[in-house]
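I trust your eye. Have a critical look at both lines of this record:
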Amino acid sequence: MNTFYLDTETTGLHPATDELVEIAVVDDAGNIVLDTLLRPAESTAWPDAQRIHGISPDDVAMAPTREDVLPELLALVTGARLVIYNADFDLGFLPEVATAADQVSCCMLDFAEHIGDWNDYRWHKLDSAANYVGFHWPGSKHRAAADALACRAVWQYLRRQDDQP
């Protein structure tokens, strides 16, 4: 089964009112197989989110929409294992992906279990988990491709720990 790592950037935290502005998918070898900005259908400004990921309305003005990219994304993940850091968040914006994938794993939950720190109200952020495993950021944190690569690094670290006697 192929394994892919997915990350998104959004206009905010709520799938009912916010939208995707970037998506990236990385394969198990660390190749970026999908990395694109997305033009929101409704949102015209997202200053709070923009301060975090740096993606402006001008950046996405000519980008494809979520619906334009969805067929390619579904073709990639159909029948695959999909690993996402904070899967519930990303899948809130992409519920079709959860159905298409053969298996979805939340790297954030596995990381919390590994370090023995479960807290429903405060989870470890991806950059903390990535730093913990010695990941060297290839670009800006809070951009989808870099975050998907960080998720891959954390997941592979956790799998190596599982393999130790």
Remarks:
- The chain has a mean pLDDT of 93.
- The chain has one domain: 3-163.
- The radius of gyration is 15 Å.
- The first strand starts at residue 3 and ends at 10.
